[in-house]
């Protein structure tokens, strides 16, 4: 896409800077310059990427500078925040590359970064779901060295898989030489897009099953604690509502894009692709709110970092295994 700017002055010639030769080229007539057309959808994605980057940078900073936030749960939240941070930066870089450095290699690197980042985001959400399930199913043995080791192994495995997925377009798994096999997200091939979409559907199905088990265990715990029955019933009901909201949000953001990736290809109108990609990226805007900023320990650290104190009405109730 052209990156030449429209000149509205009355001057007939201007000097054009040649980025490749790092010198001024000969003067050209302004009538030969074409206006730079920027898609509002690309602007929206860039703004979304900026918001994603800012939110998740805050989460990572809080986790990094707070020594008490080192439990397995916070390791997974940090991994999710890092994945979403990369996704946000990827959206910003993709915008810059499209309008300034539109080359095949840059396109492959940009798309590879986005694939790796968003794949890591989805798999980290699944890992957090698994962690929540284990914290209830094995409540007595959850806070052990074995759990910590399992968490780090899970995080390393997730990132190895996602980095591999991100490298595939750069290593030749792309459709730059065969446009007929392109998916809705060029240069990803149609087959690769279908595999990623089906994998997402499997991840979502597994999350639904795990959250169903979490709800069953939480209700059973609430019934077993007779002394705190009323309190636990209220807490559990609130937790189930929260889980429902998490699943609905995740599905609303990613399901349209996943389904569209399966049925459509590069011949379909781009507006449909943008209309499904934008909600998917918004999931990375919502993730810090759901998984980080709602956490009492992170809230406390955020209050201390911003104000140097904790509000008097801040809840000090310890979290239990029934708090889902």
Please give a handful of descriptors for the protein shown.
single chain; membrane; 8 helices; Rhopdopsin 7-helix transmembrane proteins; disordered C terminus; disordered N terminus; mainly alpha; phosphoprotein; 324 residues; 4 strands; G-protein coupled receptors family 1 profile domain-containing protein; transmembrane helix; two-stranded antiparallel sheet
Task: Give an account of the 3D structure.
It is found in: Cell membrane. This is G-protein coupled receptors family 1 profile domain-containing protein. Residues 55-291 form the G-protein coupled receptors family 1 profile domain. With 324 residues, the chain is mainly alpha-helical. The protein folds into 2 domains: 1-37, no CATH class; 40-298, Rhodopsin 7-helix transmembrane proteins (Rhopdopsin 7-helix transmembrane proteins, Up-down Bundle). The chain has 8 helices and 4 strands; from the N terminus they run ββββαααααααα. The chain has helices spanning 40-65, 72-100, 104-137, 145-167, 190-224, 229-263, 270-293, 296-307, and strands spanning 13-14, 17-18, 23-24, 28-29. The strands form 2 sheets. It has a two-stranded antiparallel sheet with strand order 1-4. α2 (72-100) packs antiparallel against α3 and α3 (104-137) runs parallel beside α5. The chain starts with 12 loop residues before the first strand and ends in a 17-residue tail after the last helix.
């Amino acid at each position: 896409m052209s990156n030449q700017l429209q000149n509205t002055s009355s001057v007939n010639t201007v000097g054009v800077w040649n980025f490749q030769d790092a010198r001024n080229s000969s003067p050209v007539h302004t009538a030969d310059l074409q206006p730079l057309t920027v898609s509002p959808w690309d602007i929206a994605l860039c703004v979304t990427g900026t918001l994603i980057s800012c939110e998740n940078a805050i989460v990572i900073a809080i986790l990094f500078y707070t020594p008490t936030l080192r439990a397995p749960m916070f390791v997974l939240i940090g991994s999710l925040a890092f994945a979403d941070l990369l996704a946000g930066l990827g959206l910003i870089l993709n915008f810059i590359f499209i309008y300034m450095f539109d080359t095949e290699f840059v396109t492959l690197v940009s798309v590879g970064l986005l694939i790796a980042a968003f794949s890591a985001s989805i798999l980290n959400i699944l890992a957090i779901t698994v962690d929540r399930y284990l914290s209830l199913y094995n409540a007595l043995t959850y806070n052990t060295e074995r759990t910590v080791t399992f968490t780090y192994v899970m995080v390393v495995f997730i990132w190895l898989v996602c980095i591999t997925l991100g490298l595939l377009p750069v290593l030749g798994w792309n459709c730059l030489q065969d446009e007929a096999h392109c998916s809705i997200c060029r240069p990803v091939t149609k087959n690769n897009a279908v595999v990623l979409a089906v994998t997402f559907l499997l991840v979502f199905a597994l999350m639904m099953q795990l959250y169903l088990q979490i709800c069953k265990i939480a209700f059973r715990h609430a019934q077993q604690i007779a002394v705190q029955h009323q309190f636990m019933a209220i807490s559990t009901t609130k937790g189930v509502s929260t889980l429902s909201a998490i699943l609905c949000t995740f599905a609303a953001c990613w399901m349209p894009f996943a389904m569209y990736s399966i049925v459509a290809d590069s011949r379909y109108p781009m507006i449909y692709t943008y209309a499904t990609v934008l909600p998917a990226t918004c999931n990375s805007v919502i993730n810090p709110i759901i998984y980080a900023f709602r956490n009492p320990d992170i809230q406390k650290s955020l209050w201390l970092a911003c104000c140097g104190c904790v509000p008097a009405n801040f809840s000090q109730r310890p979290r239990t295994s029934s708090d889902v």
